[in-house]
């Protein structure tokens, strides 16, 4: 297998998702004729990798001036189940380009080379409740190792980006029931993009950001493997945005998002989380190499890893 082909496909997939930020039943970037390279899977989504399921819980309430504890609320939870609702660990690797962010469970993934839990994405201040609720959900559904009985530990992978411009982030509105809904509703096939799940309150290049997904398939002579990516994007200045090699951000200066928080406090903040799945039979150290290539895909759309931005990626293989 030509591993460089997988790396190149990953970069192509990452670099197109900024333009794919719409609901699944709406027009996507390719429908506008934007020339992206590579062959996509059936859904052009992370769910093109067999067995992968994605679920969301979206919380949208209130308008007007921000009042802590009341809203407006624009947040949620995204859940990615590598092999569905089963305890079925997969080889995994993690890479952080710029670590101004949180990813629970990452130490054990790096140490063991395994991903043993779902991956969840939410807002910065809700990581704790999402982690604890994921443990409860896994226990409730008996998704624990049969080898360890009651001594088995759970270290869920929960990561985040900051939605405090559009969301009452200090109001702690994400609850246990939202985590359960995201996990229980996870499905394969067509999934929503944009203003859903953990991506609900995101800003991206001073446009409305959110959740994006994409996939690419290698040629048969290179193994025919699938690479799928899901991101939660929340970074970048308008002038930085590049789409298909064109500095489009410099050309669009008259569209600005609504801000509920104090946008004057935001200088170079913002982050992006990328989850990469593949059915290629790769070992943990190879998966870490692929996770590093997320950074190149971000650079192709104008990402520069500013100081208060967290760019982190987790990569796993569902091959058996």
Automatic annotation (TrEMBL):
Q: Which SUPFAM superfamilies match?
A: DmpA/ArgJ-like
Gene3D superfamilies (alphabetical): L-amino peptidase D-ALA esterase/amidase
Q: Which GO terms describe its molecular function?
A: aminopeptidase activity
- What residue intervals traverse the membrane? none
Q: Which residues form the signal peptide?
A: 1-24
Which UniProt keywords are listed?
Signal
Q: Which family does it belong to?
A: Belongs to the peptidase S58 family.
Protein name, entry field: Similar to d-aminopeptidase
Q: Which organism is it from?
A: Xenorhabdus cabanillasii JM26
Lineage of source species: Bacteria, Pseudomonadati, Pseudomonadota, Gammaproteobacteria, Enterobacterales
């Amino acid at each position: 297998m030509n591993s460089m082909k997988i790396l190149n496909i990953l970069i192509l997939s990452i670099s197109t998702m900024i333009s794919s930020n719409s609901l699944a039943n709406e027009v996507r970037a390719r429908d506008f004729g934007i020339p992206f390279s590579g062959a996509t899977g059936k859904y052009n989504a992370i769910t093109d990798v067999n067995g992968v399921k994605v679920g969301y819980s979206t919380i949208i309430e209130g308008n007007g001036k921000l009042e802590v504890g009341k809203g407006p609320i624009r947040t949620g939870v995204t859940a990615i189940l590598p092999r569905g609702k089963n305890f079925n660990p997969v080889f995994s690797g993690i890479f952080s380009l710029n670590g101004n962010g949180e990813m629970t469970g990452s130490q054990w993934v790096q140490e063991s080379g395994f991903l043993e839990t779902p991956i969840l994405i939410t807002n910065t201040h809700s990581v704790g409740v999402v982690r604890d609720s994921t443990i409860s959900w896994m226990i409730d559904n008996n998704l624990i190792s049969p080898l360890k009985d009651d001594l088995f530990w759970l270290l869920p992978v929960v990561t985040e980006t900051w939605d405090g411009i559009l969301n009452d982030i200090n109001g702690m509105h994400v609850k246990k029931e939202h985590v359960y809904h995201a996990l229980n509703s996870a499905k394969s096939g067509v999934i929503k993009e944009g203003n859903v799940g953990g991506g609900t309150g995101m800003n991206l290049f001073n446009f409305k950001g959110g959740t994006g997904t994409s996939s690419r398939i290698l040629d048969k002579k290179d193994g025919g493997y699938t690479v799928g990516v899901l991101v939660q994007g929340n970074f970048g200045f308008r002038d930085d945005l590049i789409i298909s090699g064109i500095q489009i951000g410099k050309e669009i200066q008259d569209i600005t998002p609504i801000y509920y928080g104090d946008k004057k406090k935001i200088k170079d903040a913002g982050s992006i989380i990328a989850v990469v799945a593949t059915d290629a039979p790769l070992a943990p150290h190879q998966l870490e190499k692929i996770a590093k290539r997320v950074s190149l895909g971000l650079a192709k759309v104008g990402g520069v890893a500013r100081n208060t931005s967290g760019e982190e990626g987790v990569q796993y293989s569902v091959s058996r």
